[in-house]
Design goal:
299 residues, 24% strand, alpha/beta, binds guanosine-5'-triphosphate, six-stranded mixed beta sheet, 2 domains, Rossmann fold, three-stranded mixed beta sheet, binds magnesium ion
Length: 299
């Protein structure tokens, strides 16, 4: 029996719900989700098996999460945009995720550079709109129905059944052998996921520019049967930010640590010891070489 396998670039504006959808589809919280924009910084693969009952064909859909399409001067944001565009180039199909609460501007911008790449539209967050408004929004997208393969109005947060969407994607995938083990949810290493979960806690516990001017490096992981010991560093750009991350009586860093630890414990179903230390790496998000040190290679 021939198998299908291919890459599906998950593209959309910041905050559309791309990472929420991907966590949902693999049934694990792996990717950082935040109500703040520009949460995702690098591509991440999510591997989803699919069996087409009618044809008996087996598929491996590799969804690739990307940073939201955003046009900003800052070097880190330029890396993020490049990263999303690279994934777009390298994918077999695109899943464009748009929030139903947004205008069509983001989708129209996407159509400009998409050329003829096959794509499916997921119109997300319909739980926030009335039936009438949802229908009106779908009608606006229908103007472009010759461009997309299908449109799926849904809620990544609330829906549980994504079968029809997966079937449509599976149908368009090329015939190819599986690239990953059929049990894998992602090819990320556990320490990469720890980094995302700690970053998520930073995003959700700090405000203003701090989430955007901080990053996390997991320095060391010591595994044993009973406990996972994780030693990580939070980097910020200025001394004043360091004090804010720590907070008075170290309350903020304790809160970040507690929430990250609980998320990791839930993921690996094991007790976790998490040590977080805060360091200053001056202007790290604004200089090429420093960005490279954090794994964001802009060239
Ligand atoms: N009400 C509602 N909220 C949603 C839904 N899907 C995602 N969200 C919320 O939208 C916000 C953004 O979600 P993310 O998954 O981080 O969005 P993203 O597209 O990955 O964002 P970037 O990584 O910044 O590009 C979070 O607060 C989610 O909880 C949905 O179906 N309904
Ligand atoms: Mg994201």
């Amino acid at each position: 029996m021939k198998t299908k396998c291919g890459f599906v670039g998950v593209i959309g504006k910041p905050n559309a719900g791309k990472s929420t959808f991907l966590n949902k589809i693999v049934g694990q919280n792996i990717a950082l989700v935040s109500h703040k924009v520009n949460a995702t910084r690098k591509r991440m693969n999510f591997i989803v098996p699919f069996e087409d009952i009618a044809s008996g064909e087996m598929g491996q859909i590799i969804f690739v999460d990307t940073p939201g399409l955003d046009y900003q001067e800052k070097l880190l944001n330029q890396f993020m945009l490049k990263e999303a565009l690279r994934v777009h180039q390298e994918s077999d199909i695109i899943l464009f995720i748009a929030s139903a609460t947004d205008t069509l501007e983001g989708y129209e911008e996407f159509l400009h550079f998409n050329e003829n790449k096959p794509h499916v539209v997921l119109l997300n967050k319909i739980d926030l709109l009335s039936q009438e408004k949802i229908l009106a929004k779908i009608a606006l997208y229908q103007k472009y129905q010759d461009k997309f393969l299908a449109i799926f109005p849904m809620s990544a947060k609330k829906d549980e059944n994504f079968h029809q969407l997966l079937k449509t994607i599976h149908t368009s995938l090329p015939y190819a052998p599986f690239l990953f083990d059929s049990e894998d949810l992602t090819d990320l290493k556990l320490r990469d996921i720890y980094k995302e979960l700690i970053r998520e806690s930073v995003f959700n516990n700090l405000s203003d520019e701090l989430p955007y001017e901080s990053d996390v490096v997991v320095e060391k992981v010591i595994e044993s049967d009973k406990i996972e010991k994780i030693f990580a560093k939070i980097f910020v750009e200025k001394e004043s930010q360091k004090s804010m991350v720590i907070g008075s009586n170290a309350n903020t860093i304790k809160r970040i640590g507690k929430s990250a630890r609980e998320k990791i414990e839930h993921l690996i179903q094991k007790k976790v010891f998490l040590q977080l230390n805060v360091f200053v790496h001056k202007s790290w998000s604004k200089e090429k070489d420093k960005l490279k040190f954090f794994g964001y290679d802009i060239d």
